[in-house]
Predict the structure.
Amino acid sequence: MAKYQLNVNGERREVSVDPSTPLLWVLREDLKMTGTKFGCGISACGACTVHVAGVATRSCVLPIALLGERPVVTIEAVAQDPVGRAVQDAWVEKDVVQCGYCQSGQIMSAVALLKHTPKPTDTNIDESMGGNVCRCATYVRIREAVRAAAQKLK
Amino acid sequence: MTRTRVAGLFVAVLFCAFGAWAFASGSRAGALAAQRSAGRRADGLAAWEQVYGVLTHPRCINCHTATDYPQQGDERRRHFANVVRGPDGHGVPGLNCASCHQESNADSTGVPGGHNWHLAPLSMKWQDANDRPLSSAAVCRAVTDRSKNHNMDGPKLLKHHEEEALVLWAWQPGRRPDGTLRETPPITHAEFVNATRRWVEAGTPCPAR
């Protein structure tokens, strides 16, 4: 066990965990922030996506010992900035969600895309969202919602 | 025959003898130089083949693809999770290399990592569009073409092989998700650097084809 000082959603948090513990489990088990989901555990599905220093990151394969000083933003705080708010609004407007399990990861990836590429093409959307799997196959609505969020942010 | 004529003839004979000796010596020196040069080239080419053996090992060639995606594993399969090259070889915004690959190996989760994890540019592709490694001659030409290799001459190539973080990673590739160690290239890093040095000192010769 080791102590780690984290910056999660702008707040200082301290945890005492094994250095090999993935960030996902620190968030869910130690900090009780369950918005970020466990999907595959091998970074193949994207359900666990959070932002680490602004980079969409698969938290299930990031050992806490490798996080360092980098700030973490999770789905719980993503709407605190205009891009995140626009994406969440578009998700509601387009009624994207079916079962909803993968959607926090989908939203985190969509926000990362729009922060980097404010006017994405369909190829940009498909490539950037390509690592986020949805078993309900809401892909068409996801694409529409990303485009709608981009429109709102113009 | 006058005494003067005899002396002249003697001098002429001396000149001819000296000329013949000088010519023979010159030819021998030329032949020796040519022999030395051929030997140096042969040694350089042998060293290059060692370098090529490393460059085409999965730890290196998996990120020197000719396609829109990296490869992974010893069998060089397409990278999972729909990972794509992106405009600068670092992936795309929602799916960067750094989305999973950190500054060092994550042995507890089996994800390899190193500083500035990314794909080599397409100008440094070492395989064809069907994922077959290019020939030794073709890789050598690409590696030595300064319009393709970030303008690196021989000494810079040597330094790159000695110090670049992702080159060094190939000999410290960490553990697979099942906990076993990843395979390393066929020679040690020191042997790789030594082979590169011999190849560079021989003038970076490339096989004819």
